[in-house]
Queue: 4 jobs
Job 1
Amino acid sequence: MGDRTLSRHFTDLAAALSDFRASHGWGRAVALPQLGVPKRVIAFDLGDGPFFMVNPTISWISRAEFEVWDDCMCLPEIAVRVRRSRSLSISYLDSEMRHAQLDHVAEDLSELIQHEMDHLDGILLTDRMLPEWGVVARSARERATKVHLLRK
Ligand SMILES: [Zn+2]
């Protein structure tokens, strides 16, 4: 990827994420394949502005898993219950093409990174859906949690 092309990708990703957050009020990351470009680039915005991962590789992933509601900018009306690893370490190139890594990230970032890495591999959240939950309207996911707990 040339520098000019990459910098255009960063601009497009940041704009897509910012537009989605403005219109929907949520959204922490977007992967370049979601914009129709099959390259391994992810933009994140965890509240402090965008940062980017180019060619990210998971170097370690925890065996311990947890269940979480997953949602996606591609399918903004739905939520599905998935199982994700509690933590991971990831290495990547940053927007300046410097090697960078995050080690033993917290659960909320771990599940987000796993979701975005799936996009790079053509896997959607529904492919990971725990079948006993099915597809839930995103607006109903908290209520769905309570129903599930009551059934136990
Ligand atoms: Zn997604």
Note: The first strand starts at residue 29 and ends at 31.
Job 2
Amino acid sequence: MERVRLALVGCGGMARTHVARFAKVRERMELVAAVDLVLERAQAVAEHFPGARAVRDYREVLDDVDAVLLVLPHHLHHPIGLACLEAGKHVLLEKPMANSERQCLELIDAQRRSGKVLMIAYCMRYHPIVARLKELIDSQAFGEVFQVSIWTEQLTQYPADHWAADHRTLGGGQLFSHGCHYIDLLLWYLGRPLRGVHLGTKLGTPWMDWEGTSNVCIEFEGGKLGYHFGTWGARGTRLGYSIHAHCTEGMLEAQISYGDIMREQEGKSRLLFLRSGKEELLLESEAGKHTENEMAHFLDCIHYGKQPLTDGPGSLQGLRVIWRLYEAEHQGIVADLRGLGLDQFEP
Ligand SMILES: NC(=O)c1ccc[n+]([C@@H]2O[C@H](COP(=O)([O-])OP(=O)(O)OC[C@H]3O[C@@H](n4cnc5c(N)ncnc54)[C@H](O)[C@@H]3O)[C@@H](O)[C@H]2O)c1
């Protein structure tokens, strides 16, 4: 099988995470170009891949590649994603898909017209612990799930002139930028949402122009509840990144990454089952973002014509939930979250 020729567009912070895992998929994929407006960043990536070019403008390399990985500021996801699909390239696009509903619909439409793969890089879905939790919830291995709670506590601070410090380029606040991973997971675990609330605050994160801390509560079909607490203002943490799934026979606890107090356990993610007087380790995996699994799935979609697990329509549904939650928060009401999937809602 031919190796997929890939260009990495955007060689900043998250790109380094992707690049660190490329070696694990090198039999199926070859980095032929690294692109960044800041040429030194592109060069710093390209020098690790023999023969790879470093350029400032992605249009210079489109003729030489089959696929692009876009790791760009959010306001560039739409124009550059669209241009790459229209040029007939497969696109792995960092989350969130785009900053407005119209932009997302245009990307979905461009994907359909091109017949190429458009996959959104919701890397948490490809984390072994997160994926195993989904299997256990779906198979009702520990009874019926009735509450999933997700915590993400971190200190994330951008300089005032950074694109992520401005909601016009970020697309919103912490919930939109980072919480989109966890709204996506709640929908994946719990199904169709009915209603919900978001309360956010800028307190504690004065470098943000929208909220830096979010609390989300959502009711799903069948009476199941989802909760998400995310902050970019944590000066200390115990839960770090954690998921608790309460089921009728016990609780499943995913410790994705650990907080300050549990430092001795760093380096591993764990899935545990807890029931009064009993704690069982179900799965342990390397901590960190498993972007090699995400890339392997993208390559499978290209090679075998599979539909991405994290495709455009599913990703748009999660963003619609976030936009409805923001609107309802401004109006001081509970958001109606029914009918937000592309199968349920025609634009
Ligand atoms: N999946 C995750 O866990 C995760 C974590 C962090 C960031 N991200 C996502 O990755 C993306 C990038 O975030 P980041 O933190 O790496 O940002 P960053 O600012 O560190 O990197 C963005 C890079 O894009 C470059 N760039 C800007 N305009 C460009 C253009 N027109 N052409 C080429 N390069 C251009 C910048 O020079 C910069 O190097 C965002 O979508 C973000 O949400 C995902």
Note: The chain has two domains: 4-116, 125-288+321-336.
Job 3
Amino acid sequence: MAKVIFKELASNQIVLFPENISDLIPANHPVRLVNQVVDQLDISSILQQYAGGGTSSFHPRMMIKVLFYSYLSNIYSCRKIEKALQENIYFMWLSGKSYPDFRTINMFRGKRLKKEIHKLFAEIVKILQECGYVSLEVQYIDGTKIESASNKYTFVWRGSVEKNKAKLENKIASILDDIDNQIKEDSSEPNKEEVKKPIDSEEIKNRLSELNKKLKQKDKATEKQLHELQHELLPRLEKYESQLDIMGNRNSFSKTDHDATFMRTKEDHMMNGQLKPCYNPQISTENQFITHFSIHQTPGDTTTFTSHLTSFEQLHRKQSKEVVADAGYGSEQNFELLESKNIEAYVKYSYFHIEQKRKAKNNIFSVQNLFYNSDEDYYVCPMGQHLVNIGQGIRISDNGYKSNVTFYKASNCQGCPLRAMCHKASGDRQIEVNHRLNQLKAKARENLTNEKGLYHRSKRPVEPEAVFGQLKSNNKFNRFTLRGLEKVNIEFGLMAIAHNLRKMAA
Ligand code: SF4
């Protein structure tokens, strides 16, 4: 049998000259890029946050390097970052063998980066632009739902709060009426007609103090009613009021993360359509780099567009010339916004794909295929009857945008042989037309079907959607680890920066 030779076990070997950690790090390792990029960042506003005095602080530039590199390495927990700083040579090299503990890292991330994350992100995008990776002339926009750190079963729904609050208000009103009637019976003063004010917790507090003054000698029943009002019903009403206050214009929130809203997600492992507490991050990408991000509390993409586009302009002090987005963004309000900013819209609208199909094009009954006489403002149906203008109306969207619509009606559909194919409503056919939206859609259709539009449409699925795939699937970022809108902003900002650095390094 041949002799077995083992390599020498040298863990305790003493070296004459201590090794430099830098020599152990490959020249093209991503940690070197993080180090180089962060060295270029302007962190003066973070430095100004330090009041001075007391013990020495860890240098913010070092903390930023560590945080960027941890998110790039899929380490999101401060305890794990603390551990990596003690065990991982890349972290040791970045930190210069400083060992901030998890509380210090958490405090720096949550407090010092609160107002700075967008600035740092913008600086990274500026570097990408200077290096020629992005031009900021075009943005591919999309959104996704990411679960909040809160528990799934902590929901508060607007419907149930409003229902319970109404019931409670009725109960309170009836008790107050009872007591009022009793006072009137006991009093020798003539009855005065009182103006009833709407019941809220402030009003009840005022009424309670008034009643306590008026009712110097209370019988047992009244005393019980007052006790119930003060110690049971008033706190419940205050709770409902505060819940509606937290909800704002949303329909739900989570008890353990008030800023999270319950949304339907694509990742429904239980396959039961259960809603989960989520945030709705929106991103703009170019060449798969994230050029902008914003976090929203509403599930629909349509309503996030205005604020996302406006904040892009504020962040980069310029607006892109082209915007590419899917049908979730194709509303009248969004098309108007793009037109007002002179942005070329490559944005689909609902029914864009259906409209392109032969079946839809050949449907002689559909509104878009009816002949429209714009001079005399009437439509002509397949039987040659005129559908005339019978009035205007206003449609208000979920976010309060008002659209003008016009109604047209035929005068006699009775006995028409095509009636069964034409419309299902009883009576004569009536249609509703939004002329402004039709104009905007026609412009979008023209853009989407020209050469550039076809190029953007083929590129869109490998732009933001691929980036979300990388974040969620490759980097396992399926849930925020921090709670509250501000901290979620920081966390997503760090993810976006790490994604850009990872792509730069690749
Ligand atoms: S049902 Fe009325 S609107 Fe439809 S084709 Fe006949 S006449 Fe025209």
Note: DSSP finds 20 helices and 14 strands in the chain.
Job 4
Amino acid sequence: MSTLTNAQLKQLRQLLNSRLTELLEEVRQEMIASGDQHYIDLAAGVMDVGDESVADMLTDMNAALFDRHIQEIRDVEAAQLRMAGLSYGACSDCGGTIEYDRLAAYPTAKRCYECQSQHEKSYAHEATPRL
Ligand SMILES: [Zn+2]
């Protein structure tokens, strides 16, 4: 379905991987900075969860502290799954191709520009910028 070239996919995969690493590092730093021994103990494992979903792990921890990271980690993980399942780059609403430029700016994008605008109009409350 996707018209992305292998080189473009490779680049986007690297973007997703480095974003995930960045997010995990932020979570790890916050765990340590929390001063809570429970989190400090967990911090060591964050960068080393292997094939497990980090978002699931954080959700299981009931770590409200990381809510804002969890959503983004889920987005990155979902994009990685779409990439593995070859549906990456196809709009989840209309099935059309998502432009490479859009993916390069938002590697987790699951809708084309038109569908995303439509979605944000329909669900305006979800589009509220986060602090
Ligand atoms: Zn679309």
Note: Residues 91, 93-94, 96, 111-112, 114-115 surround zinc ion (CB under 6 Å).
